[in-house]
Amino acid sequence: MLRLLGRANSINVRKVLWTCHEIGLDYQREDWGRGFRPVTDPEFLALNPFAQVPALVDGDTALSESNTICRYLAAKHGRHDLLPQEAALRAQVEKWMDWQLSELNGSWMYAFHALSRNSPDHQDPARIAESVAAWKKQMALLESQLGERWILGETFTLADIVLGVSVQRWLLTPFDKPALPKTEAYFERLRQRPAYRAHGGDGVA
Asked: Per the database record, which ranges form the GST N-terminal domain (predicted)?
């Protein structure tokens, strides 16, 4: 059975839990990270030297990085709807996964910790404003690319899982936001999926 190490309220753990549910995988989750066993513990570092949740153990394979874990699980279990085999289609999915991890996550990091977590290390008004502006810019880009169904058309993919948890974080972080009607409709479609209802973390940013 898969071992998944990471607290269930982590945005990156929720991606993996959601993916496991979509595929129909059994797993054993262990609480690690903020409020639980520390990721600096040698047992955890032996599996994930980056000291961040999640870590996945599948037999002799140990993996870190949430988007990589999602890709691994979809590929291993032949879920070519979630991660296509054909190179050009797969690249389209991975493009959005990479954008979510770099550009989108990079934009909200400071503002989220300031406004949702009330972190004492993230209270510079200028940096909060800069982060909010960058976040709005990236979300406007997502809004411009969404269609009537999923980010890549009629087929739900891993890209929608990783974007889904990021959209949820956008909606829950308290600040004045522009109207993004396509994004809000997209999120409502995501919320109808049983795997989202089980692991999307409504109410947990």
From this structure: 1-81
